[in-house]
User: What shape does this take?
Amino acid sequence: MTSARMSSRLTVAGVAALLGILAVGQLRGQAGVPGLSALSATELTQLIANLTTGNDLLRDEIADLTRQEAHLTDARLRGETTVGELTADLARIRAWAGLTAVTGQGIAVTVRGQVGGDGIEELLNELRNAGAEAIAVDGVRIVAGTVVAGAPGALSVENAAIGEAFEIRAIGSPQILTGTLTRTGGVISLIGTTYPDASLTVTPVETMTLPATQRVLGPVDAQPRL
Amino acid sequence: MSAVVTRLRSLPSVQVTLAIALLVLGFLIAAQISAAGPRIRYSTEERSPLIETALGLQAHQESLKAEILGLRSRIGDLETQDPGAADSLRRLYAQLEEARKAAGLIAVTGPGFAFRLEDGTQGGGGVDALVSARDVRILVEELWLAGAQGISVNGERLVGSTAVLDIGGSILVNSAYLAPPYTITAIGPKDLYDRLRASVAFAEFVKGRIEPSGLRLSVAQLDKADLPAFAGTVGLRYARPTPSGVAP
Assistant: This one.
């Protein structure tokens, strides 16, 4: 084999190796965490705050579940039934899902004037983000699948028409809920910009009771995945 | 023309291979440089630790969620192994199972649809061409109104407490950071998509938002759509069940 031919082959091998490295780099770059690198420092700080709060709540849930598991294990070892534990768990899940009425402190948002369903949905989204544990619109409990829809003046929820003046009630921390809704540039001021004829006022409420949903919850056409 | 072909045929095959390889190499280098552009632009000393912190918190969130699902599964097993499983207890287990299914705490599978919502390229890829939390919320609301019985977004199950928020060009769902494209999976009746298309509000969303912004919306019908279990908190701090279960 001549030295010229040898060097040609080595060049091709070198180029092929470089190609491989670049191709892998390209693929890895595309498979990385998309979006994070495009966030500004302010957005990243906001994301970190959200993740931190969310993780704190998850840790609380783990602590509750760990206690529940320990209690069940202990009861089983002693040959005792766990009716009390099960009943409490059932009540908690049903209340959280909206299957039973709940009582607690929170806020009432009085809505007057012409607002579209999109504006009310924005407000409900903000209430959920602020930690509302139960919400009702014009006396109808909001659960997964409930949508306030319609053009201004023709709102409805769960097939029931809503008048031009109605109340949104939410159970949660009155301070946090009020602060989130009424902050400068918050959802109420945004609704005011889109719907200038609307007026929304927020009032803390010491105790309120929100009804259970009448809706059938959960996928009836689905089976638990094993 | 024939002279060019003759000339090409006379070239050693090694040279041809090398030329093609160098051409591809050039393309790859150009692609690498252009892809690295935005990252270089943002790679400041201030942002690197923030990105690392966010990534660490995200990874931790995943492990916490996995732990919650594991605990719920073990608790479910313990409940059904109760030694005193009398009729009254068995009814309680069945009620618990039903409540968990209704609350979205159990992964389910059933007939449904998967919608894919992707950023557009129109208008030079400006803000309007990015899928926003509002876009996802509108599609989800329209699906509920069309009769969807359960929905997830990029593997996050939607429940009564779910908020969908903007964070830069991405979204937060159940406090989980999700980046586009978004896959919205819905379990529901076979005519779910027909009902969706019949909705005036959905038609307005497509004509007024999707099409002008160049966003891409595609749909696939699934015999088996999988919805994961909600892996968040179901604790109540402020609300307590009303004893009678009925509002006054």
